[in-house]
């Protein structure tokens, strides 16, 4: 295993230490492994809390800041945070307007966030993101997995909360974004979980996995390596089959799984954009880069979000986080 | 070779196509493989042109935009662009105030930028970046190689040009930044150049290379794999030995080589920051992420820049590029 780490058991704690030092505008609770906005709780604003297993960076800690999340709980690598962390995060961002939990659909995360919501006195609403069209149930999930749409949702809903919209409206918006987002991913190589010390799965030199999850969960099928053009088809086709994307402007997100360089991701974006144009889909905004990763897995995913004027304006609104930053 | 590409010969052209589609605010000259600011030339502003071999993304094309570069020429992977590209870029950004060429110190790049400067009527100044303390001469370089400081320089000098500073002042500033920046890198794995189809060098499972260049050029030495803490020492020590960083605020940049995930880069930043504190170096600003990469190489580099009030203010100034974006 070749990694820039000290001890597999201390990776998360030590990465959080580096993050705190690199981003003094954030406040890191090292005991509870929570990344907070430096000014949390923001009086009168709906607080947004997310979190999940580590290994998907910049998600979620890198999306904390004005215009996006108020706090993110970091679990061990690919392991849900515990309810105590979510309780501390929820209380820490409670500015009197309630708190939204943004939960990717994995059994552990859903259960622990539910438990936390019951343990706090704060008014909590929850959105469960389940946008992955690849498989119905899978290794850690009943129903569809939560993947790339989470990034777009945290940005859009973060902007709405920043505007001062009330909890019910923010929660409805979050569900709307989830309803309108679809993703499909693929892997060229496995990731290696530090504590395991070896690749999660074997993938021969001449094969790739289509429909992979972000923890190395199996996808739809293994196929021979193919050119980027064909890979783009294998990702775009199931997304377009699942929802109509032709009648509204679309946000198109080509995500890197961690080890695929930007050169390849831009090349993939070109292939995806060409397919969308052919299908009559109008791309209004795009995002290209490694935003919801799977440690050192090579591969990519495609997320499409059926937007509208409100969603596009919220997407364009200022955001200031380590992972996404523009405007203001 | 597992890559998201179609044909090894068309990688650069196809990545530029994707970049143009993803960033309509830029203008891509596909024939000459130049990424331009959409509004170039900017009347009365010094134009900044950089470029080099592809495979280091987001550098340089991802650093084109207000507050940074006016144009970037893309060569084939790890191969200098040709003088014709640099001529077209220089003419395309000439707003009447002259043009600065920002050149990483590799023999081909230096020669071709020199030739281009002689071929244009535009007033051209040149800065050659040579900040890598690892080795004196190397595979593609007489003298030190140009690496991480290039990112910081393009940001800082870009802000100065945006303010309307004249060419001589902008060029002096660029040389000052280069004089005050030092870098050292390491690799856990080799990169694979698409046209070669196999790793550039062999690195056994239990070894790493210290002092590596961004094209897989040999470094100082091969050593057994070590914990991040010791890797940080092997990078920070030679940088601190080369220049005094204790008497001024420092910008600290921990760069990913392409395949090392952000989780590991933040962990490395924590180690680097701890060493700097012990050495009496005051970090005023930081940057953590893959900004000057080497295709799919796993590893990282550390760059320190001895700043001052002017450099910090220019660092903080607004920038709007695909790769670096904040403020405004």
TrEMBL record, chains A, B:
<dbReference type="InterPro" id="IPR050861">
    <property type="entry name" value="Dihydroxyacetone_Kinase"/>
</dbReference>
<dbReference type="GO" id="GO:0047324">
    <property type="term" value="F:phosphoenolpyruvate-glycerone phosphotransferase activity"/>
</dbReference>
<protein>
    <recommendedName>
        <fullName>phosphoenolpyruvate--glycerone phosphotransferase</fullName>
        <ecNumber>2.7.1.121</ecNumber>
    </recommendedName>
</protein>
<dbReference type="Pfam" id="PF02733">
    <property type="entry name" value="Dak1"/>
</dbReference>
<keyword id="KW-0418">Kinase</keyword>
<dbReference type="InterPro" id="IPR012736">
    <property type="entry name" value="DhaK_1"/>
</dbReference>
<comment type="subunit">
    <text>Homodimer. The dihydroxyacetone kinase complex is composed of a homodimer of DhaM, a homodimer of DhaK and the subunit DhaL.</text>
</comment>
<comment type="pathway">
    <text>Polyol metabolism; glycerol degradation.</text>
</comment>
<dbReference type="GO" id="GO:0004371">
    <property type="term" value="F:glycerone kinase activity"/>
</dbReference>
<dbReference type="InterPro" id="IPR004006">
    <property type="entry name" value="DhaK_dom"/>
</dbReference>
<feature type="domain" description="DhaK">
    <location>
        <begin position="7"/>
        <end position="326"/>
    </location>
</feature>
<keyword id="KW-0808">Transferase</keyword>
<keyword id="KW-0319">Glycerol metabolism</keyword>
<dbReference type="GO" id="GO:0005829">
    <property type="term" value="C:cytosol"/>
</dbReference>
<dbReference type="GO" id="GO:0019563">
    <property type="term" value="P:glycerol catabolic process"/>
</dbReference>
């Amino acid at each position: 295993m070749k990694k820039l780490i000290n001890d597999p058991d201390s990776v998360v704690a030590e990465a959080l230490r580096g993050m705190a030092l690199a981003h003094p505008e954030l406040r890191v609770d090292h005991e509870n492994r929570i990344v907070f906005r430096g000014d949390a709780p923001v009086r009168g604003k709906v607080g947004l809390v997310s979190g999940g297993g580590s290994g998907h960076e910049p998600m979620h800690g890198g999306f904390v800041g004005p215009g996006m999340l108020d706090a993110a709980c970091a679990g061990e690598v690919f392991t849900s945070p515990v309810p105590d962390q979510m309780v501390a995060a929820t209380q820490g961002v409670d500015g009197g307007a309630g708190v939204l939990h943004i939960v990717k659909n994995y059994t552990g995360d859903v259960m622990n966030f539910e438990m936390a919501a019951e343990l706090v006195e704060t008014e909590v609403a929850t959105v469960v993101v389940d946008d992955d069209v690849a498989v119905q149930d899978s290794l850690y999930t009943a129903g569809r997995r939560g993947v790339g749409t989470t990034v777009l949702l945290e940005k859009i809903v973060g902007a709405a909360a920043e505007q001062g919209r009330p909890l019910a409206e923010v929660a409805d918006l979050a569900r709307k974004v989830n309803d309108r987002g679809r993703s499909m991913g693929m892997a060229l190589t496995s990731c290696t979980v530090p504590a395991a010390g070896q690749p999660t799965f074997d993938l021969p030199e001449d094969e790739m996995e289509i429909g992979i999850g972000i923890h190395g969960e199996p996808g739809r099928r293994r196929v021979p390596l193919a050119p980027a053009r064909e890979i783009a088809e294998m990702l775009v086709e199931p997304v377009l089959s699942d929802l109509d994307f032709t009648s509204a402007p679309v946000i198109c997100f080509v995500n890197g799984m961690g080890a695929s360089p930007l050169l390849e991701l831009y090349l993939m974006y070109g292939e995806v954009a060409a397919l969308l144009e052919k299908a009559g889909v109008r791309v209004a905004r795009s995002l290209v880069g490694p935003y919801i990763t799977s440690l050192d897995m090579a591969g990519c995913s495609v997320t499409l979000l059926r937007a509208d004027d409100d969603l596009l304006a919220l997407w364009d609104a200022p955001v200031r986080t380590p992972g996404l930053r523009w405007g203001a």
